Amino acid sequence: MKAPFLSRLAAGLLSLSVAAAAFAGDAIAQTEKQGLNLTAIGMFFVFVLMTLGITYWAASRTKTTADFYTAGGGITGWQNGLAIAGDYMSAATLLGLTAMMYTQGVDAYIYMIAFFVGWPIILFLMAERLRNLGKFTFADITAYRLDQGKVRTMAAISSLTVVCFYLVAQMVGAGQLIKLLFGLDYVYALFVVGALMMVYVTFGGMVATTWVQIIKACMLLIGGTTVMLLAFSQFGFSFDELTTRAMEVHKLGDKLLAPGSLLADPVTAISLGLGLMFGTAGLPHILMRFFTVTDAKEARKSVLYASGIVAYFFNVIAIMGLCAILIVGTSPEFFEGGVIGGKVIGGGNMIAMHLAKAVGGNLLLGFLSAVAFATILAVVAGLALAGASAISHDIYSRVIMKGKASEKTELRVSKFATIGLGIVAVLLGIAFEKMNIAFMVALAFGVAASANFPVLILSMYWRGLTTRGALWGGYSGLISAVLFVVLSKSVWVDVLHNAAAIFPYTQPALFSMPIAFLLAIIVSKMDSSVRAKSEIEAFEDQYVRAQTGVGAETAAAH
Fold this sequence. Notes:
The chain has helices at 5-30, 38-59, 65-70, 77-88, 91-104, 106-116, 118-133, 139-142, 148-181, 186-232, 239-249, 266-280, 284-287, 296-327, 332-336, 351-400, 407-431, 438-461, 467-486, 489-493, 509-526, 530-537, 539-548, 553-556; strands at residues 339-340, 343-344. It is mostly helical. The chain has one domain: Sodium/glucose cotransporter (Up-down Bundle), CATH 1.20.1730.10. Strand 1 and strand 2 (343-344) form a beta hairpin.
């Protein structure tokens, strides 16, 4: 009997989470340094010089904290949409999802949908209120009518946790990619990424980071579209012919276009889907971008443009993955990593690069390689800026100095924080070189969905939220998400080498999100203090500002 569709859909999500872990481990374990790719290095230097020029220009425009954190609020909806899409279209999207389509077929498309469905939540529930209520960080919103010191500290800790795990994943990915494609040693690649990230953020702030993301997004769209069109043209641009021929040669056969080809565990799969969906709405470097536009209307436009760009790119890489089955071939070495013709190919994760070389030669391979590295640089810069703002604006300026720090001092702290985060990112990248990084990405999304999203959405929509409730909800979501992942097979068995996992599932969101919501609501309901009553009354002023963008000064000063 066939499994119900939802079970098969859930199984598809699970299979891809397993595949992602396997791909990350295999690629890292079997990638070795190879000869210099001069075309890729040349194009990489062109990109670096271009972005350093932008940073020099941006430095002259970055004089205040508003300039540093939000580009002075002068970014248009179209520009910000491109930048948000650039943040979201990481190297994992280009390399990892193409590889998943190549090996798992339509399961990869289900995975893309799980990533994508977070955007309507941001568009319809959050974009306008984020822009109207916030100033620099999402902690401005969660602490709007609550205890500034306690709630900002909690929000900053969860933000830094997400940022650090994302940074580790990006840094390890950068080191392995450059070791494979550029011939540089892993440690040298980490120092290059860390140094460039520090320069972009320290001198150019959000202005430079935004324009680096815009340029990178355009390069990624051009590169990916070119590879897709050249590959797809070999099948007369007929999707029917492409899929029919692919099913004839692929090891999955007819199951290439059927969901759920590996394991059937709906609980883990649904938990993964929830983490990806609501984690998107809780990522600090994505949320920070809504404060860079002029008003709420432009914020909504940003999400609309970003959604369209991301949806288009997902379809591009889906077609690339299917084309690779026929153009690159289905040799086991490509699935598992290995050596072909004396060259290490890095397993399925590098299939996009092999397809680029097959249809466009070394020139297109070099361009796409440079774009992949540029993608990591841009994402790391955005993450560093989000982390620096949490340290300088939330912890230093608002908690330690209680709002009395000068803009000049706060800006200086931001730059020192950026340098510190760069050093930490490099050191963590070195420490975790041999570790499977798939669980770090899952943990980042899990923490964002469990710690950031519940408190953020409740603070915007529920008048009953109090400081105690926010703290219990935020910290319980953060701790439970981390604890569940540590006790799962991803860490407890694969990393710590214990015999069996204590927590039976690899994704925490299905369990840690309800804990955060329930404790935030229950503790808030039980809080009968005088302060709690005033916080509840202040919601009316907050609601007015959330709707109109004006007023609510009494709540802001609360």
